[in-house]
Write a structure and sequence with these properties.
The complex is a heterodimer. By secondary structure, chain A is mainly alpha-helical. Chain A has helices at 2-13, 15-32, 34-37, 77-113, 115-129, 133-144, 148-175, 178-185, 190-202, 204-212, 214-226, 238-245, 260-288, 290-293, and strands spanning 70-71, 75-76. In chain A, strands 1-2 form a two-stranded antiparallel ribbon. Chain B has one domain (89-346): MetI-like (MetI-like fold, Orthogonal Bundle). The longest helix of chain B is centred in the middle third of the chain and has 38 residues, at 200-237. Classes of the chains: A mainly alpha, B mainly alpha.
Chain lengths: 295, 347
């Protein structure tokens, strides 16, 4: 556990990771306080559906009732961005949770048993890694029909192989340790050896790496939403709100930046969310990379 | 010949991967009813009207492996089905849209690599000094930028405000000229064709259209190459021969640029191959923002309009391209870096 303390101290010393932590903390607060920051008007409405102020297509600039303005179709940008934070965390946590579980199960089977099991599982990861991630995800979403759930399924399908490989690699090392040998010698079952002795010692780096992937998952999900393959229209989702801006990049003659709020604001939320995780991730990578840390 | 054995082994390893890729794609199609699946085998609009005949002909109600056999046979003959979105067979659509995407990759890859290497070297040579921190922050921000958002902003500034650069591939007049008999389309890569036709205006117009998508693609990837180059340089700078070179009294920039950088380049070269394959396999988001009609744009249109044969044909194509490029890169790698033990590389 002194490792953890050392790591925390190194992170606090690094201004970049400190900024990252602060950014993430702000987003966590926004997500938790969403009903207070942007109360849902009326009762019985799905809070994730952005309230709209009429059906007029052209975005309207920030005003008293719409602090960030409205985007195409009069959806309130402020409301969408605040509740979109919850959507972002939800997508990321579901995807990371499921892919980690898949990765841990398949990776430990492959790493611990080796031989044919290993060969088969690794060839399956090869197949999934043969596709550029976004393209496979896009194909899966198109086939099962665009929705937020499809986006999460597609992301799970493209994300698990890298965790399976990471876990497998770490398990291969731990497997050879004396205490594992000892436990096997005492007649422990494979399940017990894996769960009690191998995994707890192998899982640590992958867990941290995976939690830092939250930014990347959200970025990819936003990309799919931007392509029009995500949540239904009007759902609080940053990617979709950026897609709305597609038609309003260029204002009328003489006012090229007229719709800046519709274009810039949702993207700023995505950028900072991803940036927060990447700042933290960058610091971790330095700590983890002993070749660089020594100098 | 150790190298030959290595190549043969790699080719053998390719078989299960390609088999798996086709299984995966075909498995996805099995989610559909035979009628929906029939469009995967169609090669003309006439056939589209008589789907029961197609179901009969290709045995789409037969067991999985029988159908897989028929399907793979069709794929190997180049029949990937009919693309409704662009009204041509999927295979033809790939051939038709690939050159535009290749053009993007041809411009973006060298730009990304050169800038990435330059900045990565600078950062490593000035480790923990302002230059290093500056480039590091740039890299993290670049890496976090949503590509699509960057594209929108670039259009807002350079098309909307400054009016110097434009989306799409060519302006209308040039498009007409390029498609006329006076202009021979050797490669369908506009800039190269313009040079071969000695046509200055087309070249200029094509360049004006390609700048924004190339910049959009580059920003994220430069950040990535830069980080890779930096850590590779730092590793190389810690080696004994660098100490020797410095002890000999060589000037610092000779040590950095000759001794350290040459060895640090190896991982970057490997990644460059993957980078090119990734870009050539379709920059879906970038092409969709700029209405740049390459293979990624076509795939996007197909996905949005649920044109499944096109989407799956495209996914299959990009996976095969990706796998083959990786193979070529790995083989070239053994030539670039003789230290690579061939046996170990297979693991």
């Amino acid at each position: 556990m002194s490792d953890l303390k050392l790591m925390a101290r190194q992170l606090a010393k690094n201004p970049l990771s400190l900024i990252g932590t602060i950014i993430i903390a702000i987003f966590v607060i926004i997500a938790i306080l969403a009903p207070i920051i942007a109360p849902t008007p009326g009762t019985g409405r799905d809070p994730y559906m952005i309230p709209r102020d009429g059906y007029f297509a052209t975005p309207q600039p920030p005003s008293e009732s719409h602090p960030f303005g409205t985007t195409q179709g009069q959806y309130d940008i402020f409301y969408g961005c605040v509740w979109g934070t919850r959507t972002a965390f939800r997508v990321a946590l579901v995807v990371i949770g499921i892919t980690l579980l898949m990765g841990i199960i398949l990776g430990s089977l492959a790493g611990y048993f080796g031989g044919v099991v290993d060969e088969v599982i690794m060839r399956i990861t090869d197949v999934f890694l043969a596709f550029p991630a976004l393209i496979l995800a896009m194909a899966i979403v198109a086939v099962i029909g665009p929705s937020l759930r499809s986006v999460m399924i597609a992301l799970c399908a493209v994300w698990w192989p890298s965790y399976a490989r990471l876990i497998r690699g770490d398990i291969l090392q731990v497997r050879e340790e004396d205490y594992v040998e000892a436990s096997r010698g005492l007649g422990a079952s494979s399940g017990r050896v894996i769960l009690r002795h191998v995994l707890p010692n192998a899982i640590y780096p992958t867990l941290i790496m995976a939690s830092l992937d939250i930014g990347a998952v959200v970025l990819t999900a936003a990309g799919l939403s931007f392509l029009g393959l995500g949540a239904p229209e009007g759902y609080a989702d940053w990617g979709q709100m950026t897609e709305f801006a597609r038609n309003w990049m260029v204002g009328p003659p003489g006012e090229p930046f007229k719709y800046w709020y519709a274009v810039l604001i949702p993207g700023i939320f995505i950028l900072f969310f991803v940036l927060g995780w990447n700042l933290l991730g960058d610091a971790f990578r330095d700590i983890f990379d002993p070749r660089l840390a020594r100098r | 010949m150790e190298l030959r054995a290595y190549i043969i082994r790699r080719l053998l390893l390719l078989i299960p991967v390609l088999l798996g890729v086709t299984f995966l794609i075909f498995g996805i199609t099995m989610l559909f009813t035979p009628t929906q699946r029939a469009s995967l085998y169609v090669s003309s609009p006439q056939q589209m009207r008589d789907l029961p005949a197609i179901i009969e002909k290709y045995g789409l109600d037969k067991p999985f492996f029988v159908q897989y056999g028929t399907w793979i046979g069709q794929v190997l003959r180049g029949n990937l089905g009919w693309s409704n979105v662009v009204s041509m067979p999927v295979g033809e659509a790939i051939v038709h849209y690939l050159p535009a995407t290749l053009e993007l990759a041809i411009f973006a890859t060298p730009l990304i690599i050169l800038i990435g290497i330059f900045m990565g070297t600078k950062a490593a040579a000035h480790k923990d000094r302002p230059v290093d921190h500056g480039t590091r922050i740039l890299a993290i921000v670049g890496w976090s930028l949503p590509t699509f958002w960057l594209g929108l902003i670039l259009i807002m500034i350079f098309y909307g405000y400054l009016k110097i650069l434009e989306p799409e591939r060519l302006s209308v007049e040039m498009e007409i000229l390029v498609n006329s008999a006076a202009f021979i389309r050797y490669t369908r890569i506009n800039t190269i064709d313009a040079i071969l036709n000695l046509n200055g205006p087309v070249l200029l117009d094509a360049l004006r259209h390609i700048v924004l998508p190339v910049v959009t693609l580059s920003v994220v990837n430069i950040a990535f190459i830069m980080r890779l180059m930096r850590s590779s340089m730092l590793e190389s700078l810690g080696k004994g021969y660098i100490l020797t070179a410095r002890a000999k009294g060589l000037r610092e920039n000779v040590v950095i640029n000759k001794h350290a950088r040459r060895n640090a380049l190896i991982p970057v070269i490997t990644v460059s191959g993957y980078l090119f394959a990734g870009l050539a396999g379709g920059a879906v988001i970038t092409e969709s923002i700029f209405g740049y009609k390459g293979i990624g744009w076509w795939a996007w249109q197909s996905a949005v309009r649920l044109d499944i044969p096109s989407v799956l044909g495209f996914a299959l194509f990009s996976a095969v391209l990706f796998v083959l490029t990786n193979l070529v890169v790995d083989i070239l790698y053994t030539r670039v870096d003789p230290r690579v033990r061939l046996g170990a590389a297979v693991q």
